[in-house]
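Task card 7
Instruction: Convert sequence to structure tokens.
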Amino acid sequence: MAIIKLPIKILLLTGLFILFIALIQLLFYIYLATNESTPQKSELIVVFPGGKERMEAALDLVETGLGEHLAVINKTKKRLKQEIERKNESEKAVLLTGEESRSTFEDVYRASQLIRVHNFRTVTLVTSSYHMPRALFLFKAHLLSSGLDVKVYYHCVTIDRQILAPIFTGHFYNEIFKMWGSMMELTGNFITGRLMYDSPWFDTISDLAHTYLLTNN
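Output:
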């Protein structure tokens, strides 16, 4: 009987741990959604891919002199320059190439490469408020594990100012599940030095999760 109870206890503790992590995410999400971030001047403004409002927010920071370099992950320097010109924005920042990525962790990985190459000491991360808890955690954790001494600021792009309603939508639901995949990528890269999406088995698991667990939001 004790042998049977042991797996049940393990499952219960695992479930409680998952709920605890989800609660932390939720509280941080509410904090970011209800508090304006104060932009800080930094050497690099890095934008993680997503809606156009993210890049527009980053360009606003550039225009006010809060960033010397601008990188939008998944956009080449040429594409980034074309978009800025279409928006009639002045080019006040040095544009950096953001190599293609397949996940938030790879966004972090690509940004960290730019930081290492250019020896930046301060960086501002720009992404949506619902995405920031996971992105900021991964960014700081990867920089720390890579031995990069960098001060990270953040600037949230708020999608909906009607606050608490969005936290119960698909955005937050997806972020709960994606955090575990991101943690696998972070841990796998730290141990092996490789990107997990280069492994067919991880790509397959990711496809199954997107098909059966995640919403289309």
